[in-house]
Design brief:
Largest sheet: 6 strands, mixed
Number of strands: 21
Mean pLDDT: 86
Structural class: alpha+beta
Low-confidence stretches: 1-10
Strand order of the largest sheet: 4-9-8-7-6-5
Radius of gyration: 23 Å
Distance between the termini: 58 Å
Number of helices: 10
Helix content: 25-40%
Length: 385
């Protein structure tokens, strides 16, 4: 280990916190959350204080009943592991840096300008018709606008020789090489911030649906079936507020997101009756999955932010009996603090967000039939009222 302070690079880590019975470390600038055991928690707090490696080892020896030499080796191991995970960086390793290059010229495959409450965005795709089709699909459901605007942001996208994609904002190229899935995230971030003006208090990975007094965040890993279930519930009288991301404001209300739902090929058969045009939409490959993008159903009335009443971890299991079950604390931690959820840890609201994530009624839904799933979830409606 080097002789410099453990907290080299001023990582600005927060002291250890408890979440759902587990100790976690938070790196605000990276939006990173790390699960810690007791020994790692002692070292983490030392880094947060800016202690030297020797001081950290002393704290660990005192707390863990080990020799100074053993504690020093343990500190070295932990720091190397956290260095390899880039936790000492000031920004996520995949976050783009504005480069010195300007956006290249080329044949425009797609150019579309959309508008929203926060402003307008013009998206231009150069020499890449396939990704142009994806960008066009991501914008469906948003009002179009004339290019001229005093709040216009221009995003230009082009293909690289290695099959990845790069982009620039307002003429400045960013140092990034993105997959199609990563490019989708970059486009959505632009739309969230520059067009829709959605809150950044927290953005939970999930779909949001409502039925009467019930507002449910459907959660789970990518491919768990959140969008499919949300689409099926929408066909059964529920209102879908968002697909893939649930933005929360400082009052912890979920805001509607008028962006299309991503429906995987495996869901076509079960949703085709409710959405007959789905099979005719173009297919796109993202993260090794084939999917289509379909606009959310038009709501019967204007949608307003709603406070979620429940979070549901979705698990599709053919041939199993539909059921709702409690989740354990480790499942809750993984569900809410996964890599795809964003929390503004640099704002004063984050303790309230973590408390909400700890306490919102959260259940695991196992189902093989949409009618059974809807029946179980509507049972929560009776409790909510």
């Amino acid at each position: 280990m080097t002789n410099r302070a453990v907290g080299f690079g001023s990582p600005n880590w927060l002291p250890v916190r408890t979440f759902a019975g587990h100790q976690i470390g938070i790196c605000p600038g990276l939006n990173a959350v790390v699960l810690l055991n007791e020994q790692a928690a002692v070292v983490w707090d030392a880094i947060a204080r800016g202690d030297t490696a020797e001081t950290a080892a002393g704290h660990l020896a005192d707390a863990g009943g080990m020799t100074r030499a053993a504690a020093a080796n343990h500190v070295t191991t932990l720091v190397r592991a956290w260095e390899s995970a880039a936790l000492f960086d000031h920004r996520p390793p995949d976050a783009p840096d504005p480069g010195d290059e300007t956006v290249p010229s080329g044949v425009v495959s797609v150019e579309k300008t959309v508008r929203g409450p926060a402003g307008s965005a013009c998206l231009r795709v150069l020499d890449a018709p396939q990704i142009g089709s994806l960008v066009d699909a991501l914008l469906c459901g948003l009002p179009t606008a004339a290019p001229a605007s005093n709040r216009l942001t221009t995003m230009t996208i082009w293909a690289m020789a290695d099959g990845r994609y790069a982009y620039g904002i307002d003429g400045t190229a960013f140092d990034a090489r993105l997959t199609a899935a990563e490019l989708r995230s970059a486009v959505n971030m632009l739309l969230f911030d520059k067009v829709l003006g959605l809150p950044r208090t927290a953005r939970v990975h999930g779909a949001c649906v409502a039925f009467g007094a019930l507002t449910v965040v459907l959660m789970g890993v990518s491919g768990a079936g959140k969008s499919t279930l949300a689409g099926a519930l929408s066909a059964r009288g529920w209102t879908q507020l968002s697909d893939d991301t649930v933005p929360l404001d400082s009052a912890l209300r979920a805001h509607p997101v008028p962006l299309p739902a991503s429906i995987k090929d495996g869901s076509l058969a079960v949703l085709s009756k409710a959405k007959p045009a789905l099979s005719q939409l173009p297919r796109h490959m993202l993260a090794g999955r084939s999917m289509r993008f379909v606009p959310l159903d038009e709501p019967k009335e204007a949608l307003a932010p709603r406070a979620p009443t429940h979070a549901i971890a979705v698990r599709y299991a053919p041939h199993e009996t539909a059921r709702l079950e409690p989740i354990d604390n480790l499942e809750r931690l993984s569900l809410f603090l996964g890599a795809e959820t964003f929390i503004d840890f640099e704002a004063g609201t984050f303790p309230k967000v973590l408390k909400w994530m700890e306490t919102i009624p959260t259940l695991k839904l196992t189902y093989s039939d949409f009618d059974d799933a809807a029946r179980l979830l509507q049972g929560l409606h009776r409790v909510a009222t």
